[in-house]
Design brief:
This protein folds into 2 domains: 149 residues, Quinone Oxidoreductase, Chain A, domain 1; 168 residues, NAD(P)-binding Rossmann-like Domain (Rossmann fold), CATH 3.40.50.720. Helix content is 27%, strand content 27%. The strands form 3 sheets. Strands 3, 4, 5, 6, 7, 14 and 15 form a 7-stranded mixed beta sheet that branches. Strands 10-9-8-11-12-13 form a 6-stranded parallel beta sheet, with helices on both faces. Bound molecules: NADP nicotinamide-adenine-dinucleotide phosphate (NAP). The site of NADP nicotinamide-adenine-dinucleotide phosphate has 32 residues, from helix 1, helix 2, helix 7 and helix 10.
Amino acid sequence: MTQNRQVVIRELPRGELTNDHFELRDGEMPAAGEGEVVVRTILMSIDAANRAWMQGATYREAVKAGDVMHTYSIGEVAESKDDRLKPGEIVAVEARWADYVTVKAKHAQKLPDHRPLSHMLSILGIAGKTAYHGLVNVGRPEPGETVVVSAAAGSVGIFVGQIAKALGCRAVGIAGGKDKCDWVVKELGFDACIDYRGGNLFRELKAACPNGIDVYFDNVGGEILETVLFQMNQKGRVVCCGAVSQYNSTAPSGPRNLPGMVVVKRLRMEGFIVMDFADRDEKATQELMAWVKEGKIRVVEDVVEGLENAPRALTGLLAGDNRGKRMVRVAPDPV
Ligand code: NAP
């Protein structure tokens, strides 16, 4: 009999998420009902947002204790009871941390057979599109402007800085640790990257952005947002993408300079969800692919092998041990 391993949330975290909040178990092998497909998981996206889902309903349903952990994944149709999909086709689905899941065929998105499939989670997936739409359509930087991005070595951040460079801007990252920051500059071509754990964020940011900050792509919220706001230029734009510094916290902090800074500096602070720009995805994909071909964007993926390692892939991501788009490989790309 085929095995269907599943990773279940034993209990929801109060504060820091640890590997002990999860449990690996053997589940039933699912079967497709009318209008459904069984999908064999190939790659699971591991995202900071997975932790936010445990704090209650966001732009999607909340994750509950006892659930097989929710995820966005790429898989192969193993069985179909719907004319829209055939076995062997590659799909993206809202799925679970499991070898196999059943989903309604109408909710499965058929993907082009682009190889490697991992690109559909990184540059051509949510990470690349979030970076593109957030920067191009919300931040709208002009050539010569200074763009700052936090979580700069993460899945969205690596693309934000590289897109900023491709658009002719100065790109400055903020990340945790000197090694990571050196890597962001040397390997990804950012103009500078500041270690927020070094204790001098305000001073170092000022030195790295001598003409002030025109666009801040905020992935973290909290005290880093507060610090950056002080250095925004008049009519600057703050792209609110996420608040990863708050996800593991029971007492959210900062920024304390709101709305003062927004008023005095005439800032535009705008949140967005990547799906808001679905009608512009095709253009995003074309531009991103072109920049990759021209060598302006390097695609960095951080692949953890094995379903059983999904909990440590997520807790490690929240502790900052990833470089680039983190994902878990559950099965090899089909030949
Ligand atoms: P990621 O960068 O792959 O992982 C999170 C990174 O955040 C870690 O590597 C860590 O790097 C950093 N971090 C963790 N705790 C931190 C803290 N207390 N202070 C500062 N940095 C911290 O995550 P991602 O997938 O690119 O996501 C980035 C943000 O975008 C998240 O807030 C996510 O929720 C959001 N997001 C939004 C959308 C949307 O549609 N709006 C879509 C996708 C993602 P360091 O070592 O540098 O600390």
